[in-house]
Amino acid sequence: MVAYTFQWHVVPESAGALAHGLKLTLQLSAISFVLSLVLGLVVALCRLAPSRPLRALAYTYTQVFRALSLYVYVLFIYFGISAVFGINLGTFAAGVVALTLLNSAYMAEIYRAAIQSVDHGQREAALALGLGHTRTFSSVTFPQAGRVAVPGLVNQLVDIVKDSSIVAVIGLLDLMGTTIQLVSTERAPFELYTATAVAYIVLILAISAAAALLERRLARHVRGGGSGPSPLERMQRYRFGGRVPT
Amino acid sequence: MTNVLAYEFAWGPVLDRWDLFLLGAWLDVWVTAISFVLACALGIGIAVLRLSGVRLLSAPAFAYVQILRGVPLLVFLYWVYFGVAIVIGLNFSPVQAGIVALTLTGSAYTAEIFRGGLQALDAGQAEASRSLGLSRTGTYRHVLLPQTLRIVIPPLGNVFIGLLKGATLLSIIAVSDMVSVANDLNINFFTPFEAFTAVAVILVALVAVFSAGVTVLERVLRLP
User: Fold this and answer.
1) Residue range of the domain that includes A229
2) Which of A150, A152, A118 is nearest to A136 (CA)?
3) Which of A16, A228, B119, B169 is the 20 to 30 A CA-CA neighbour of A124?
């Protein structure tokens, strides 16, 4: 067995390129996160709409779009859709579309569960007081539902950041893409992939910590707040948001 | 009618190779199944360590979960297949590297699920069986785990489906699964839309079947 000589000096030497890749990862994740927040809400509203075909369409959207992996999305959009419509989507744009479609389907389910958790009486009372449907939603239902949804939605950002690494496969030079490129020239796969893994871990722990802080702050304003969900409730929550990001 | 799209759809190459797609899908399924079983075994061990009450055991178990949940599967896959392999001088086959990466990633999630399942039980359950004279192991085997099992089935089903979606990444390190069949078709016939649609349809169908399976399992095991 040949003893391996570690070449950790490669990592600080590549810091500049990796930082540039990290910036792209953050941009890709942030744009996809914001777009998913908007699209997810639209889909959730369609799922709760009075129109039956609209509900069925939104239901199909959440079921089908959650079933695909980001890798399949990326291949399908970057190669398939581009070829059919003769448009040349860049790798960044393809990544944004893929991440948005997948995560909006997850977010729609988080929004829906949150909206349904608001007591019926709230809506009925608002309507009885003469507020219109739009006003009832924007001033009464949504502010309360939002508080319930926020922790789940922020946790979705964790999945987006992790999933965004897959866009490297089609050649985007994000954190992962830059690492793959560096490995081919520097020939230090263990050191470079370890460094990238650590960078992702730090990023994800930071987002998780922010999500936990936000959850605690928001819980203060909810009745009986502060205690959070019971362990059993926490388990049952997996039915909605639970997923293993790839 | 004039054709608006310049693209000529050609489903022939895909339909002619339906058996290759199914073989590829089968590979994804059994790689997932093996990784899932290993991830569950590892996850139970880590959950028990975390709830052991001994700081020397629970702290590393906590760190394990936090760290492994922060690594994207693709990074893990490359790390194992290219990085670790060189360092320890071991040549993983692509499938082996895939199973290692999927198992370790999955174990961080199953550990949290088993921990949640054990914590969801009333503390009186453990206390009662201990005071009835059951050993610590006996308490787990006969009282706690059978109840936990029923609580954890739906979230574990989620993990299984997540791992199945993760397994589609394996074609990147040259595992000949269904995505690699589609990639080959795309290169040889330039039918990206048809090839990747086939993969998407198979994946949606598999996820639907496994979701239904989890629901059935849950109903069968439900206590009267």
Assistant:
1) 10-241
2) A118
3) A228
Give the pLDDT mean for B101-114.
94
Assigned domain for A158 exists: yes
Domain boundaries, chain B: 27-178
Based on the structure, what is the number of domains in chain A? 1
CB–CB contact A85 B5 (8 Å): yes
- Asked if pLDDT for residue B83 goes beyond 80, the answer is yes
Q: Is B152 on the interface with A (CB under 8 A)?
A: yes
pTM (2 d.p.): 0.87
Amino acid B45: pLDDT: 94
Query: Is it the case that residue A240 has pLDDT exceeding 50?
Result: no
Find the CATH number of the domain harbouring A39.
Answer: 1.10.3720.10
Hey, is the C-beta of A212 within 8 angstroms of any chain B C-beta? Answer: no
A116 vs chain B: nearest CA distance in angstroms? 21
Rounded Cα distance between B6 and B206, Å, is 32
Give the whole-angstrom CA distance, residue B68 versus residue B75. 11
Query: B 168-197 residues with CB below 8 A of A?
Result: 168-169, 172, 179, 182-183, 186, 190, 192-197
Q: Is the pLDDT of residue A32 over 50?
A: yes
Q: Is residue A5 part of a domain?
A: no
Domain assignment present for residue A209? The answer is yes
Nearest CA among A245, A98, A101 for reference residue A172: A98
Q: What is the mean pLDDT of chain A?
A: 87
- pLDDT tens, residue by residue, B36-59: 999 999 999 999 999 888 999 999
Tokens for A81?
A: 């859709």
Q: Residue A215 is which amino acid? A: E
Helices A52-67 and A91-117, packing angle to 10 deg: 120
What the block records as the tokens of A141 is: 């239902």
Which of B70, B87, B151 is the closest to A201 by Cβ? B70
Cα-based distances in Å from B39 to A83, A233, B7, B96, B159: 39, 24, 44, 14, 10
Instruction: List the 93-152 stretch of A: residues with Cβ below 8 A of B.
Output: none
Q: Which of residues 17 through 56 in chain B touch A, CB cutoff 8 A?
A: none
The answer on pLDDT for A244 being more than 60 is: no
The residue among B54, B50, B119 whose CA lies nearest residue A228 is: B119
**In a domain? residue A246:** no
Measured between CB atoms, does B126 come within 8 Å of chain A? no
